[in-house]
Fold this protein.
Amino acid sequence: DQQVKQNSPSLSVQEGRISILNCDYTNSMFDYFLWYKKYPAEGPTFLISISSIKDKNEDGRFTVFLNKSAKHLSLHIVPSQPGDSAVYFCAASGIRGSTLGRLYFGRGTQLTVWP
Amino acid sequence: GAVVSQHPSWVICKSGTSVKIECRSLDFQATTMFWYRQFPKQSLMLMATSNEGSKATYEQGVEKDKFLINHASLTLSTLTVTSAHPEDSSFYICSARGLAGGTYTQYFGPGTRLTVL
């Protein structure tokens, strides 16, 4: 059962525009969310995270928004650059029970930024 | 920033041999380490979770006698694929969770590509 879902397997955006990657989750025990970026044949690289006590976290061109009531988060990349082309994984973790210390991943969204 | 290294980055071995992959957290102490496997065009699959000094907890369907995990220190975990077979060929990624920069987060190694002939 996929507890973290990224329903768009791919996204194509022109350079300079905004990229919005979406993620939904089902487990209400999740309280910490992360985004990772992954190039082929490499390990994921941590991008940005957000705790459930916040609804927004910004780091440079990357902003993550969290809507707890909708169990939805999104990653905004502005402006998008060709080097951002990669697979982006959404992940969630919790502090209680079976979610403690574990990361649950979505299947990823392939972002392609074209010139 | 926090760095996790893996060694080797790429290994080719003959069927029936064993392969050891090392995972190190370079500038923080990893209270928990995780081992993942990634199949092409799929999400990361968690294989096992290990805490320093304890036995690893394996996910359902992962053979603990085949994938031996040792977490001897707060900075080193090893995964040994015993009697490897071609179906074990995959991309193995370790991850370390600990306090880095004032917050707990989880960082990933660069991965190890295993090819079993």
Q: What stands out?
A: The radius of gyration of chain B is 14 Å.
